[in-house]
């Protein structure tokens, strides 16, 4: 009993020290807590996601989600692989492309073109698979330099990677041009839609991002635990070739599920990502996600206007990205002050822009708080900084008068 009490007080103390995720404005991970999801959480806590054939509800969620993504990205003849997140999806996409290119094109020394602003997971996954990474520089819009792609692509290129909303600056690569180059060189394209996959399809844009619009599109990864609003551990990989997962994955005897083809990488895994994604999709539907995406952008504009009125610069990236990068003379000091007020973010120097500041990711359930409490804290910081400056000036002024008299 004593032990239990000790553990409880230790846990309570530790948990108290954790900051609230509500104030985590730097992360892309969803902080939304759908009460409906939480009602059923306990049932799914220890269900192994790989046992989908055994647990009927899980296989039902999977089928519904598959249908959803095939429709959203116009890929009815393709396939959808459930993963634990974008990194697993990227590793699988590169693996499938490598195997297919070897068998169908005889490519034994494959390379992938990866833009400099890509998330580090792309380069890491390629290296793990022994695929040469050819880094592509950025142009003055901080997106993939098309001319450099043309120079670096060759007959051993198995994928041209493109980013649909970049992690740092929120830009989107020129998907149409990259698709044209890939087609011309008889190769394929991969889109990293970790962030954009749950934003772009819901907005009115003239972007082309579906499998029917981009002929060379081989695969796309999406993180569901970002703007899909699922619990952590949710991702998908969309593949154009329906048969590819059958061709390049092994079988496993799985107790409750019988003999299974393993299209994903991990075996035992949490089913919370799958369950919560399904529940959110059913609850909010297309129109709900559309309303959320529009709200992120509206908040981004209002936040930018206010921060600019305080003298900060805001890099906004694509007009469709839900984030901004705040910089300015005292941005590092502001970041430190905000940390002290419980806001999770940190200042760093962003490559390409060459500016030091911090990123704000506008997520569901943070919009109002950003416009109210967050802005109030920025205002307080500015007032304090001005007071300090006034004090310093009056001290220096008094010193000068003393010296004169
Ligand atoms: C653009 C991009 N790609 C890939 C990833 C990796 O995603 P995950 O954390 O779901 O593995 C991230 C993570 O932030 C990202 O921003």
Textual characterization of the structure:
The chain is 44% helix and 16% strand. It has eleven helices and 13 strands. It has two domains: 35-281, 3-Layer(aba) Sandwich (Aspartate Aminotransferase, domain 2); 292-399, Aspartate Aminotransferase, domain 1, CATH 3.90.1150.10. The mean pLDDT is 94. It has a seven-stranded mixed β-sheet with strand order 1-7-6-5-4-2-3, with helices on both faces. A four-stranded antiparallel β-sheet has the order 10-11-13-12, with helices on one face. The chain has helices spanning 2-17, 35-44, 56-72, 86-105, 120-128, 146-152, 175-184, 244-247, 272-309, 331-340, 367-404, and strands at residues 79-83, 111-115, 132-136, 157-163, 188-192, 217-223, 235-239, 251-254, 258-261, 313-315, 323-327, 348-350, 355-361. Strand 8 and strand 9 form a beta hairpin. With 405 residues, the chain is α/β, with parallel strands linked by helices. Pyridoxal-5'-phosphate binds at residues 28, 85-87, 119, 121, 167, 192, 194-195, 223, 235.
């Amino acid at each position: 009993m004593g032990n239990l009490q000790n553990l409880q007080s230790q846990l309570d103390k530790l948990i108290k020290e954790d900051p609230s995720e509500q104030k985590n404005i730097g992360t892309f991970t969803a902080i939304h807590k759908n009460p409906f999801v939480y009602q059923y959480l306990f049932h799914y806590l220890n269900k192994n996601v790989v046992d989908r054939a055994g647990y009927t509800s899980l296989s039902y969620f999977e089928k519904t989600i598959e249908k959803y993504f095939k429709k959203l990205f116009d890929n009815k003849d393709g396939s959808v692989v459930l993963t634990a997140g974008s990194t697993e999806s990227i590793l699988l996409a590169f693996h499938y492309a490598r195997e297919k290119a070897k068998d169908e094109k005889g490519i034994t020394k494959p390379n992938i073109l990866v833009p400099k602003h890509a998330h580090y997971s792309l380069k890491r996954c390629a290296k793990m698979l022994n695929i040469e990474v050819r880094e592509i520089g950025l142009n003055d819009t901080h997106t993939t330099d098309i001319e450099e792609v043309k120079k670096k692509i060759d007959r051993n290129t198995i994928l041209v990677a493109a980013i649909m909303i970049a992690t740092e600056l929120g830009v989107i690569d020129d998907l149409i041009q990259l698709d044209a180059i890939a087609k011309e060189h008889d190769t394929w394209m991969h889109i990293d839609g970790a962030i954009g996959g749950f934003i772009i399809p819901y907005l009115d844009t003239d972007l082309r991002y579906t499998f029917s619009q981009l002929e060379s599109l081989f695969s796309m990864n999406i993180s569901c635990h970002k703007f899909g609003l699922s619990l952590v551990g949710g991702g998908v990989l969309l593949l154009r070739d329906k048969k590819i997962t059958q061709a390049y994955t092994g079988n496993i005897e799985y107790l409750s599920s019988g003999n299974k083809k393993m299209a994903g990488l991990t075996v035992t895994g949490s089913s919370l990502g799958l369950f919560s994604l399904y529940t959110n999709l059913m609850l909010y539907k297309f129109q709900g996600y559309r309303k959320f995406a529009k709200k992120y952008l509206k908040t981004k504009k209002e936040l930018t206007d206010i921060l600019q009125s305080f003298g900060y610069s805001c890099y906004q990236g694509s007009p469709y990205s839900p984030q901004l990068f705040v910089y300015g003379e005292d941005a590092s000091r502001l970041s430190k002050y905000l940390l002290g007020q419980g806001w999770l973010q940190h200042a760093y120097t962003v490559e390409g822009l060459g500016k030091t500041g911090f990123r704000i990711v506008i997520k569901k359930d943070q919009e109002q708080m950003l416009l109210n409490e967050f802005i109030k804290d920025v205002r307080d910081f500015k007032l304090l900084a001005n007071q300090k400056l006034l004090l310093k000036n009056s001290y220096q002024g008094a010193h000068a008068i003393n010296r004169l008299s």
